[in-house]
Every structure is written in C-alpha cells, then in structure tokens.
Design brief:
By secondary structure, this protein is α/β, with parallel strands linked by helices. The chain has a single domain, classed as Rossmann fold (3-Layer(aba) Sandwich), CATH 3.40.50. It contains 6 helices and 6 strands. A 6-stranded parallel beta sheet has the order 4-3-2-1-5-6, sandwiched between helices. Helix 2 packs across helix 3 and helix 5 packs parallel to helix 6.
Length: 177
C-alpha cells in the first residue's frame, strides 16, 4: 500500500469516529441568550444524552463550528464530558479569522475559553464571506459520520447542513427546541 492509500484510509477512519453539530444562533432560539431558561436547559440535557450515546457508539471526535448558540453549547458539553470520557476530542472549525470580533465581550471570553481547551482549532478562511459559513458546515459534514442538529423547521444554514449531511449519508439526529 502506498502513502496516498494509507492517508486516505486514515482520513476515512477518522470520519467514521467523528460527529459534528449544527443549529441556530442564539438570536433565533426561543430563549434567545438566556441559557438558564427551562427550554434551553432541556435542550442541553437532550444534547448531552445524544453526545453520550454517540460516545458509546464509538464516536470520539466532535466538531463545533463555534457560532453563538447551539454550536458553543455543544462545544461546552463536549469539554464537560471529557472529564468522564478523557479520550474524546473537541475540534473547533472556525469559518474565518475574527468571527467573534463583533460579539459582546462576554461572548468573546466564552469563545476564547472554549478554543483554549479544544484539542484542535482549524480556521478555514482569513476573512469573512457568506460562503465561509456554508463551507465550514460542508467541511464538518465531509469529515464526519454523524450530525447532531437542533432544528425547529425553518430554512437557513441549519436546514442546509441537515440536507447536505443526509445527501452525504451521515447518521442525522434532530433535536427540537
């Protein structure tokens, strides 16, 4: 077997153990930025259960696109679960440098705390463009076998990512807010 075939096998092996996330930003969630809201706490519990189920199925790499909202919630849950499951890894897939620059100071601090604890941070583009967000989602799907989504039924990036994941043959789990 040559080096290229070995690299392809390694990538395929990683894809079989990787799970990614998609969901709305805080502004589009019923509870907004109030993560102490009962509905948000319920979503966090459901998400934690799905991630633990994925770990028990053999998934050990979890990818977050690090947008405000569901992405950051998932990243924090994975980091919390690393205490119980030390072999799991968090990969933060950043669409572009400085995506957090327009966020509140509090959200920027939260974002950078997650990045510091992540096992891998991959920045896809140097500058923002509308395509960088879609390409980030495609990148995560193309490098995963499972997608955990928070989806309430409307269009947008979450719907695109779910549809794309299904087209690529991923195991798709949909949670509703």
């Amino acid at each position: 077997m040559n080096i290229i075939e070995r690299i392809k096998q390694e990538i395929e092996k990683q894809n079989r153990i990787a799970c990614c996330f998609t969901g709305p930003r805080s502004q589009k969630l019923p509870w907004g930025f109030n993560e102490q809201d009962k509905r948000c706490l319920n979503v966090k519990d459901m998400t934690r259960e799905e991630i633990v189920k994925a770990i028990k199925e053999g998934y050990s790499v979890f990818m977050s696109g690090m947008a405000i909202g569901f992405d950051m919630i998932c990243a924090e849950i994975v980091l919390e679960l690393k205490k119980q499951y030390p072999k799991i890894k968090l990969y933060c897939i950043i669409p572009c440098k400085g995506q957090e620059k327009v966020w509140s100071k509090e959200l920027q601090i939260r974002y950078h705390n997650i990045l510091r604890k992540a096992d891998k941070v991959n920045v896809l583009y140097n500058t923002y463009s509308r395509e960088c967000m879609l390409n980030r989602n495609k990148y995560m799907v193309n490098n995963s076998a499972k997608l955990i989504a928070l989806y309430g039924g409307s269009g947008g990036g979450t719907k695109f990512t779910i549809d794309y994941a299904r087209e690529q043959g991923l195991d798709v789990v949909i949670l509703t807010p």
